[in-house]
Amino acid sequence: MNEKTTIDLQNIPFWSMEISKVVGILETDAQKGLSENEAKKRIKIFGPNIIEKRQQSPVFFILLNQFRSPLILILLSAGIITFSIAHYRDAIFIFAALMANTILGFYQEYKAEKALAELKTYLKQRIRVIRESMEHEIDAANLVPGDIIHFSQGDRIPTDGRLFYVNELQIDETILTGESLPVSKTTEPVSLNSVIGDQNSMVFAGTVVTQGVGIAVTCRTDFSTELGKIATLVAKSQREETPLQNSIKRFSIKLGIFVGIFTVGIFITGIALGYSPIEMFLTAVAIAVSAVPEGLPVAMTVILSVGVQRMARRKGVIRKLIAAETLGSATVILTDKTGTLTEAKMELDKILPITTGEEKKLLEMALINTDVLIENPSDPYSAWRTSGRVLETSLVRSAALRGVFVEDIKNKTPVLSFLPFNAANKFSASLIHNEGKHLLIFFGAPDIFVNHSTMNETEKNKILEEISSLAESGKLVTGIATKEIEKKEDFAFSKDLNLKNLSFKGLITLRDPVRSNVKEAINSVEASGIKVVMMTGDHRGTAESVAKEVGMNLEKRSVLDSSELQTLSDTDLKERLSFLKIISRVSPTDKIRIVKAFQETGKIVAMAGDGVNDAPSIKQADIGIAMGSGTEVARDVADLVLLDDNFETIAAAVKEGRQIMSNIRKTLVYLLSDIADELLLIGGALITGLALPLNALQILYVNFFADSFPAVAFAFEKNIDGLNRRSQKIKTGLFDPVMKFLILFIGLSTSALLFFLYWLLLRIGFSEDLVRTFIFASFGSYTLFLAFSVRSLEKSIFRYSLFSNLYLFFGVCIGIILMGMAIYAPFMQSLLDTVSLPPFWILGVLFVGVFNIAAVEFGKWVFRIKKT
């Protein structure tokens, strides 16, 4: 073998080939295996059978990442410049704002992703291998293509391999396909077009043997395996920044460009008018500082943190702070079926005896045919640790919940001989002593029993139709039949078994139950304007059955199978998306393709799942959601982890996400409403030759300290607007028309009023210090009053209680106290260059505040009129 073979092995359809051809391609011997020398050569070519652990980002880089925001960079630049010209007080205030925001952001982002490290643990094991005709145990990391591996019940498969010997082999492939039942394996080739879930002649790395034994020739190792491909997808999946991050970034860049142009313009104008370069430089710094809403990063962090805490109380843990808002903007939720909508466990569904009233007797006959070990039978049924076939353990547990216990049945009816279930027979059988006779009890595939029964053709067809109907509805259908035989001491199934003239007794169905409240949760999510699509590795009929059970209305275009998906171009797929509600038999690659297709059509996608097979698409989605009981891999790449595994929590998280987004919008209006004040007041004073009405330290004091407490308090707003309306899309822009109008209307009207008052009061002859303090007090106080008005961007201030958000009320009180200290405390007067205001001037400050509330209420009224 050579290095070219490494690439070729990934593209060879081993599942569809005869084993002799597979052995030939891999240049090995099915009986003797590889030689040790050949194995050493191949490990140099293919490398060890491990998935390398990805290097995690050092703590320093996580800290450095907090400074990527353009908004923070503007503030940082202002701080450095201010410090460099020896304005240390201003610099300290700026750096205090930076430090608070950096610490909060770093704390939330500290946990690094460990998905590949978890995938590696699936392959760290020992396995029996045949080399040079000898079977011995080696580290699975040393396996190479061509190795012959031997495995049995309980083993985890370490590589992808082609089977050439099986004995009752069943493998749990949930990790790859999401199917809850083990798959029976065969040595026979299967169709070339078979998807992973149907490649029954193959075994796959990471899957678990639940029954039987098997021998396979290793075809692919490490990243060439199906599990390795998922690891590669997880590593390559690009996590796009959230819509809020993109919008904030766009806004910050635009703000930076505007501030830069405006600042340079003011600097050049001042020099041209004869001002000194140093004086103009200080003025330019003041303008730059004034244009940056210093309290915004901290306020947003707190809003997101409070929302995350509220989600945690609802059993939803957000792993990345900035992603909390994305759920509020989500337009599509793609969800796995097994373990997400269903409980990922089989339970007894229906008992359908031929003779009415014999339900318990039919169940007892089925239990006689089970081979289940209960390790802790004295514990509650839900806590039983059982081993055996999944179907049989589920039946035993479900029967116990109905008061029928397998041990009691077997003690009452001793089994003389037992034939375990196998894939060839498709049934198990027990020989018991019954009223002086021997009775055979069969349990397994019902169609076999019906066809060998004593019923007439009409009766047979009726039962077979019922079996088909139950199977199409997603049920696992089993049958029970009996046959009386002559008493025989040396009875042996191998020579005496005869299926003719069976007495068919009835059907027992099992199902993977839908989680409680899922139907209501899906209805709630869809009512809020979010599309729900089920993606599953299970069969179409099962998926349709679950979809109907959770209330999805299906039509022909609503369901897409993986085989049909492969034939669709990207354009055709995008055209089909609006109709889709189910996609069945999907692979991890299919799931990523679906996620990307929705994203490319402008949708904000949430992906919910619980298995390794879901991890790449969970990471690719705008927000990934994992079940708490799911695999560590899925949890590590997710943004939201549902501790209670309840889809209903997604509905609650969507509502909380919308509340977060609503609170962020209110905070933006609140903090940005005074930007025009600072720019026009300072710019206007410069152009008209007046002294600057505000200095940089006063602006910082108001923006970061006085204003920040109410801004942070918006995090605790809840349900004031009602959040059942459809999501607000922010991919195209952060500010909606109402926000733009309020910010511009408030800003321009207040700026004009404050500048007019500043010019008028100086013109009348009041002292400059008194007038500047009045402008500072008005500038710092009116936004505090404004906080009550922007609690809702829709409702009138008279439609809600001013005291329903006590955090905001006390935040405003703290802001007023801080402004009072800035004006009347001697130390603060010295620091901020203020003087005490007489009582009459305080009335003027209140007038400015009332004027702004009236302006906001007028703006909201205008938009309410437009809506009606």
Write the layout of secondary structure elements.
Layout: H1 3-9, H2 19-26, H3 36-46, H4 59-65, H5 70-84, H6 88-109, H7 115-121, E1 126-131, E2 134-139, E3 148-152, E4 160-172, H8 174-177, E5 183-184, E6 202-203, E7 208-220, H9 226-236, H10 243-272, H11 277-291, H12 296-313, E8 316-318, H13 326-329, E9 332-336, E10 347-353, H14 359-368, E11 373-374, E12 386-387, H15 390-401, H16 406-412, E13 415-419, E14 427-434, E15 437-444, H17 446-451, H18 457-472, E16 476-485, H19 493-496, E17 503-511, H20 518-527, E18 531-535, H21 540-549, E19 559-561, H22 562-565, H23 570-576, E20 582-584, H24 588-600, E21 605-609, H25 615-620, E22 623-627, H26 632-637, E23 640-642, H27 647-672, H28 675-688, H29 696-706, H30 708-713, H31 737-764, H32 768-789, H33 806-824, H34 826-832, H35 839-867
Parallel strand pairs: 9-18, 9-21, 18-20, 19-20, 21-22, 22-23
Antiparallel strand pairs: 1-2, 1-3, 3-7, 4-5, 4-6, 4-7, 8-23, 10-17, 11-12, 13-14, 14-15, 15-16, 16-17
Total discrete domains: 4
Q: On the 0-100 scale, what is the average pLDDT?
A: 81
Count of distinct strands: 23
Give the uncertain stretches in residue-range form.
Answer: 111-124
Subcellular location: Endomembrane system
Domain Cation-transporting P-type ATPase N-terminal: 13-87
Organism: Candidatus Yanofskybacteria bacterium CG10_big_fil_rev_8_21_14_0_10_37_15
Keywords: ATP-binding, Magnesium, Membrane, Nucleotide-binding, Phosphoprotein, Translocase, Transmembrane, Transmembrane helix
